[in-house]
Amino acid sequence: MKSDLLFYVVSARKWSDLTRGGLFKPEELIESNKITLITAEKVNGYLNSKYQGRKNLFLLIIDITRMEKRPKKEDEGHYVVEDAIPVVAILDKIRLDSNKEGEFDIQIDQN
Question: 47: which of 12, 67, 97, 108 is 20 to 30 A away, CA to CA?
């Protein structure tokens, strides 16, 4: 991986409920015992395939060097971690809304 940053998308409305006790525990972790994180290159495709037309989302920027358990590569552009993510590993959250066509076009520069 060329960067220590991975990304996750969550409903802004659910954010505070998912970050209690200093840990981020999305519904995905409860349902499947894993959290799927994406690389910068896959953010647009992921957003447009799973969240088309949605508004009021957060794109979480996660620094994997701040995680006790490191994510494992699942396939090209996707990583999984089988534990909650410490909130200190979440560097920032960026509010996202789809455009009027219902699409996302996020540019992430990793330089």
Answer: 67
DSSP state of 71: P
pLDDT-based confidence at 1, cuts 50/70/90? Answer: very low
CA distance 11 to 26: 10
Asked whether the predicted pLDDT for residue 51 surpasses 80, the reply is yes
Residue range 5-96 in CATH 3.50.50.60: no
SS3 72: strand
Determine the residue type at 53. Answer: G
Q: Where are the domains of the chain?
A: 5-96
Can you give the pTM of this predicted structure? 0.91
